[in-house]
Design a protein that fits this description.
191 residues; mainly beta; SH3 type barrels; OB fold (Dihydrolipoamide Acetyltransferase, E2P); 5-stranded antiparallel β-sheet; 1 helix; Transl_elong_fac_P/YeiP
C-alpha cells in the first residue's frame, strides 16, 4: 500500500491523493499561529490532475494524504479526431486515448511521431507532458526587411505547420524549421 504524506510535508511539484483524486502541488504556504494552542495551517495551491482545475485549499498540518498511483509512460503521437488524440505506448505497444479536455492546447505542438510522456492514474491515461522544445516548420509569416539580423529584437507573428501562432524574430522566414517551447509558446531558435 502507498504511504501517507502529512500536509506539512507536501512540497512544491509533489503529487498527492485527496478523496480518490490525484493533485499536483503548485505552491505551499505555512501559517504558524501566534496564540498558544493554535494549529499550524498549510495552504496549498494545487491542480486537480483529472479536471486540470487549479485552486487553493487550507489543511491542518497533520492531515494526511495518500501517495497517488501515478505513472508516466513514454508514448508517441499517432493522430487525432473529434473524440481526442491517440498515442502509442512505447513499452506495451497499446494505443492510449486522451479526450479533448485532457489535451488542452497540446495539439498545437504535436506532429505524427512526436515523443511525449502520458500521465496515468490507476492505469488510465489522464494527461500528457509535452517535450521541452518541439521543432516545427513556419508555414506563414511576413517577409523580413533588409537589415534584419539575428541580433534584432523585432518580432512578428508566424503560423506553424500545426496551426499554432507564435512570435518569431524578424529574420525567420516561411519554410524555416524552428524550435519552440510549448509551455511558454516562445521561439527558442532555428534548427
Amino acid at each position: 500500500m502507498a504511504g501517507l504524506i502529512e500536509a506539512i510535508d507536501v512540497k512544491r511539484k509533489m503529487y498527492f491523493e485527496l478523496e480518490g483524486v490525484p493533485y499536483h502541488c503548485l505552491d505551499k504556504e505555512i501559517s504558524t499561529p501566534t496564540a498558544r494552542g493554535g494549529q499550524t495551517l498549510v495552504r496549498l495551491k494545487m491542480r486537480n490532475l483529472l479536471t486540470r482545475a487549479v485552486f487553493d485549499k487550507t489543511f491542518k498540518a497533520d492531515e494526511k494524504f495518500k501517495e497517488p498511483d501515478l505513472e508516466d509512460v513514454e508514448a508517441t503521437f499517432l493522430y487525432s479526431d473529434n473524440d481526442g488524440a491517440y498515442f502509442l505506448d512505447q513499452t506495451s505497444f497499446e494505443t492510449l486515448q486522451l479526450n479533448n479536455e485532457m489535451l488542452g492546447d497540446a495539439l498545437d505542438w504535436l506532429l505524427e511521431g512526436t515523443a511525449v510522456q502520458i500521465e496515468k492514474f490507476e492505469g488510465n491515461p489522464i494527461g500528457l507532458q509535452l517535450p521541452i522544445h518541439v521543432e516545427l516548420v513556419v508555414k506563414e509569416t511576413e517577409p523580413g526587411f533588409k537589415g534584419d539580423t539575428a541580433t534584432g529584437v523585432t518580432y512578428k507573428p508566424a503560423t506553424l505547420e500545426t496551426g499554432a501562432v507564435v512570435q518569431v524574430p524578424a529574420f525567420v522566414k516561411e519554410g524555416d524549421k524552428i524550435k519552440v517551447a510549448p509551455e511558454t509558446k516562445e521561439f527558442a531558435g532555428r534548427v
